[in-house]
Each structure stands twice: as structure tokens, then as C-alpha cells.
From TrEMBL:
One of its GO terms (biological process) is positive regulation of translation. The gene is lepA. PANTHER family: TRANSLATION FACTOR GUF1 HOMOLOG, CHLOROPLASTIC, TRANSLATION FACTOR GUF1-RELATED. It comes from Rubricella aquisinus. InterPro entries: EF-4, EFG_III/V, EFG_V-like, EFTu-like_2, G_TR_CS, LepA_C_sf, LepA_CTD, LepA_IV. This is Elongation factor 4.
Amino acid sequence: TELAKIRNFSIVAHIDHGKSTLADRLIQLTSTVADRDMKEQLLDSMDIERERGITIKANTVRLEYTAKDGETYILNLIDTPGHVDFAYEVSRSMRAVEGSLLVVDASQGVEAQTLANVYQAMEADHEIVPVLNKVDLPAAEPARVREQIEDVIGIDASDAVEISAKTGIGVPDVLEAIVTRLPAPKGERDAPLKAMLVDSWYDAYLGVVVLVRVIDGVLKKGDKIKMMATGGLYPVERVGVFRPGMQPINELGPGEMGFLTASIKQVRDTRVGDTITTEKKGTDKPLPGFKPSQPVVFCGLFPVDSAEFEDLRDAIEKLSLNDASFSSEMETSAALGFGFRCGFLGLLHLEVIRDRLEREYGIDLITTAPSVIYHVYLRDGTMLEMHNPADMPDVVKVDRVEEPRIKATILVPDEFLGDVLKLCQDRRGMQLDLTYVGTRAMVVYDLPLSEVVFDFYDRLKSVSKGYASFDYEMIGYAEDQLVKMQVLVNEEPVDALSIMVHRSRAEARGRVMCEKLKELIPQHLFKIPIQAAIGGRVIARETISALRKDVTAKCYGGDATRKRKLLDKQKAGKKKMRQFGRVEIPQEAFINALKMD
Ligand code: GTP
């Protein structure tokens, strides 16, 4: 296709502002899909994504649109993930296209992720077309939101397209704006092949499918390609486009987007952002700025039933084949036996993987406290990258500990500002900025990542009644007074409950954990002390009193079925327990004990 007839774009929006609905409409209007095949949110392919209403993997679709000028254009829409955990994937996919539709819900206005995503689009030098969505809602205030976009983001919103993705009003204008306002891609057909690896995933029939954007040259079936970062060489088997189903074509020329398959065995062999060229006469200049995405949050995953260890191993292996940003290595815990230490891009990523292990593979899991990567500097001058508090060296060997910090941007209506500030303060935050976006406050905080990974987002939603929006980026490491706190149940340390805490918060944290565990661990026939300790020093303590009576005693010996039921119920409850020495700890205790309300 001629470059002048191609437009490549993404849609950036805050979650729920209507990105997927608009994408569906665009597909429908260009009759890329027959009406009867149209199902909602076509681009979100995985079930779990659909259930949670989030888009995880970048996805793409090729639309053919005959514009008012009578010409037919190829429009490649790339769908980007909407969550902070996948920020790196968003920034890569942005670099694969030339323009963005900035979708803002006209009844809500600009939110934290609107800003984060539009800044990424601007960094990628995109032409941006503002789209005000949901104008069918009585609460829509397009004029106000237009002003907000100009004030806060600093782009001209006078030509913003007003639409309702739901009813379809205004959507044809969006197609016209894509053609007239977004630039055509640039590239040279005669140059050596240079293509960006935008995304990849495993397909049961085709093996690894690679989504590419060709910058220069031509990609054809039979080419022998080279991945520049990994050095891998592969013969191309298929080249095609998404409409949105996969459709083979002969070649992808400059400016085009599509897929290739090439007997690549695992998704791990493909790196998002890598440059693809040909083995012979290839380019020697890779695209700039490639970096593999790195896990930032780690936790242990252990089967509740140790007999399921092998099943867990298989399941983790399968999931890793398809997700290069998920890491795992075997771990043994004195308390939990054999399991895996796994690394994730963030908490949502962790939850998605855990859910899939439990639901798709049917494995009950114990998840240990999520931890960030600490930099532990030892007195002998070496530095240890610590992923697991259980690995914390003896304090006498430690010179200092540094932890990762983030810059968090929060938008919140004024009435909840006080509570939000308090929450950030409680999480050891340092305020960097406080300004106003219309009637809402925009606060910027420097916060320790460890204080955010666990339940910060839930707490933020709860203190703001769901109105606050949040986005963050990593800013680096800083030293602080960090110590390892252990929990002892019946005098035995439970390593899965070890956490790193700030010295000044240790007592309070320890007290809350002991109190929670007291509630979460059922009574036994003997007294169970629960203690929190730093080094050898106990800083908090609770005791679970001994259980005296048989649970069936209160059935007055009469009703046998009732007694049976009660015993069965006890047995079922037991399945989700884990034995520690003489004490049984329920599965949920591991996570719930760590929540800080
Ligand atoms: P994520 O995929 O989770 O990032 O969300 P999204 O931005 O793709 O939003 P989505 O398209 O899923 O829309 C969110 C909700 O808003 C859904 O319930 C839609 O039905 C609704 N919605 C989208 N567009 C409109 C609109 O124009 N008017 C109205 N009233 N509702 C809309």
C-alpha cells in the first residue's frame, strides 16, 4: 500500500472512558466485521480481561475506510493496555504509530491515566485528536472538558470531536479526522528491512505470533529474519493482518502493521521493542530505546496442598512461555515447603497470574507478602538485590538498605483531598506538588513503591469513594531505615510472613499483624502465642486461647445429620489450611494479615 493511504493510530484514555466501545464502533462502521459476528469488546480477547474489563495485551486491527475524498485508506488501530502495570508496553506500542485519539469521558473529564497516557503519546511525537465521548449522558459537559484539556494537557481542543461511542453519534467524524488530521507514516521500500516487534503471544495452532510494524523495507514469507536484541534467526512462515481475525497477505511494506509467524517456540524468545531485520543485507541500526520489561514486584506462590507442586510447576511453565515479563524460580520455605518465587510488573499482573493459576489450572495457592527489590549494601562493599525478605542478611553485616520509590500522580475531588493526603502521608510519602485541575486537586507524591504495591490503590478508592484516579512511574532508589520483621506462630518463625518495614512503623505494623492473625487462625486444643520480632527482639504479641469444647458438643448429642454436617464443614474448611508445626493456618491469613487498614 502507498504510504499516503495509511494511517496508524492508538486510542488513549483513562479506564472506562470508552476506548473499547469506540474501537468496536470503528470496526463496525468500516464493516471489517459482519454485524452478526460483532460481539462487544472485540479486541479484549482473553476471558479474564473481559471479566475484569481491562485490556492487557496490545492488540491491533486493520480497517479499510473510504473517506469523503473518495480514496480508500488503510487504518491500523493498535489497542494499548490501560493499566499502569503495563506502562512499558504502552510506551512501545505508542512508538509503533504516528497518532492518537485522546478519548475523554465528557461527564468525567481528564483523569490521572488520561494524563499519563497522553504524555506518552506526546513523547512518541504523536499528532493527537481529542475525542469527547459519552455526550449522550445528561451529565456530559463537553465545553468544560474541552477547556480542561487545553488547560491541563496544553493541546488545542477546539477541533475536538464530540461523540457517543454507545449510540454511534459522531463516530463517522472520528474516521474522517483520522484520515485528515493524522499524518501518514514515513519509510523506504528499498531500504533494508527494519520492523518493530510490538507484541507477541502464543497461539495454539500457529505457535508464537509476532505483531510487527514495518518501518523500512518489506517483510515477506520465506525471509530469514533476525531479532537484533536476542540474535535469534527464523524463517518467516506467514505474514498477515488482523481484520480482526487473522488474514494472510503476501507482504507487509513500509508503514504497515501486521503479524508474522516463524516457528518461534516461546514468547520468551521475542522481546517487545526489539528490532527485526533480515539475516542477509539487514540493517545494522536497531530502533532506539529498547529495554526488556523488568518485574518489580515479587511474591512466593505455594500450593495449599503440597501434592500439587508438580501441577503448579507445569502451570507456571506454561504461563511463562506466554509472558516474558513474568519470572519464576523455585523456592523452598521452611513453613510452606516447595513453591516458586515469582516476579511481576505490578500488583494487577500478580493478581491476573494468580487468578489464572487458580481458575484455569485449579490450583489452590498461598501467596506470600508481595515484596519489591531492595538494594542491600553490605559492610564489605557489595550490593545484594533482594527479592525476598527471607534473604535479608544478618543486620551486623548490613551497611544500609535502599528501596525503590515512585512518583505518584493522583486526581481527586476537593472534598476527599484531606483523606488522600493523610493516606499518602501514612505511607511515608513526600508531597511534591499540589495544583488544581478545574475543581479537582492534582497531588504529586514521592512514595516508597513497597507502600503502594499492597493495598494502596484499594485504600485510595475507598477514601475517595471511587473518585480518585491514580498513576505512577518509578523514579529510583533511596535509603531508609528498613528492617526485617518476622512473625512467630507458636514460637516458630513463619518465613512467608516476613516483611521489610520502616523502623518507625515496625511496632504498629507488628501489633496489627498479630491481632489479625489472632482472628484468622482458629483455636486449637492448646494455647498459641503469636509474636512479631525484629532480630531477636519481640515487638508485639498476642495469644490465641486454647479450645476447650468439642465443636459438636453444642448439638446436644441429638441430631446426627446436623453433627455430620458440622464435621464435614470442618473438613472442607481444613482443605484450605496449611500445617505449621502443630498449628493450622488458613490460606487467606497470609494475605489478610498484611493488609493495613
Ligand atoms: P478499559 O478497556 O477498561 O480501559 O475501558 P474502556 O476505556 O475501553 O471503556 P469501555 O469501552 O469498556 O467503556 C466503559 C463503559 O462506558 C462501558 O460500560 C460502556 O458501555 C460505557 N460507554 C462507552 N461509551 C459510552 C457512551 O458514549 N455513552 C455512554 N452512556 N456510555 C458509554
